[in-house]
Amino acid sequence: MRQITVVYPFFCNLGMLAEHQAIWASWPLDARKSLHVVVVDDGSPKGGRPSAKELTVEGMGSLRLYRIYVNVRWNWLAARNIGVHVAETDWVLLTDIDHVIKLRTLRRLTHGDLDSSAVYRLSRVDAPHVWPYADEELKPYKIHPNTWLMTREMYDRIGGYDERLSGCYGTDGEFRDRVHANARAVITLPEVMIRYPREIIPDASTVGLTRKGDPDNDNELIRRRQERAGIPGWKPLRLTFPWKQVATVKREPVLC
Question: Exposure check for the chain: N or C terminus, fewer CB within 10 A?
């Protein structure tokens, strides 16, 4: 049986973290043991920071919390780099914290055939804006552009996320281009992740930060990309922000 590490960047998502743990706690013990989770707090302010008391699920392969000690907007790039850096399994699943992994999906990832020279994407469904919901109420939703399953070796070959672009929104495309340039194939699996809207969990995704259409953001991103293009043979910068481990739940041995 393959073990999987899921990397979740976190920014003031305490309610969503609690929802994940309630779901994991409902799984059979063998499934929990196969799942390793790294939560990387992206500089949440006081009142929104997770701590050891928020990690409540036992029997996981591992459940660890790390914190970046600067608050840079949209710094999920560094959070993902840290998560892969500390992962102890061969395979990692990179996604956003508003995406819940189904037990059926986990079983496919831990027991199904996977090609280490390929990178995988997962299908996605949208949880309805009511609670509770049943599986048959989940509607297909567009594939998430930044959910990736790959080996840590592949992540290193791709280069990880370039932290020169931290602080800007709209940076996931250049990572996608490097995925396609380095993987033998990019394969979309039929198994799904469940996207949670804020109507179900109010802090499921980040609020209060501008996204698309912010000219200051867009101009800064253009400037940084142009500056980077002037560096001969540039490679992505990783692990450039101060961070450390904050908490862990009792762990099972890692058998990749």
Answer: N
Domain 4-249 has CATH 3.40.50.720: no
pLDDT tens digits along 42-100: 999 988 999 998 999 989 999 999 999 998 988 999 999 999 999 999 999 999 999 99
Over range 210-219, report the average pLDDT: 82
Domain boundaries, the chain: 4-249
What's the pLDDT at 237? 97
Residues 140-163, mean pLDDT to the nearest whole number: 95
Give the predicted TM-score (pTM) of the model.
Answer: 0.93
Instruction: Write the DSSP string, the chain.
Output: ---EEEEEEESS-HHHHHHHHHHHHTS-HHHHHHEEEEEEE-SPPTTS---GGG----SSSEEEEEEESS--TTTHHHHHHHHHHH--SSEEEE--TTEEEPHHHHHHHHHS---TTSEEEEEEEE--SSSS--GGGPEEEPPPTT-EEEEHHHHHHHT---GGGTT-S--HHHHHHHHHHHSS-EEEEEEEEEEPPTTTSTTSS--SS--TT-HHHHHHHHHHHHHHHTSTT-----S-S-EEEEEEE--PPP--
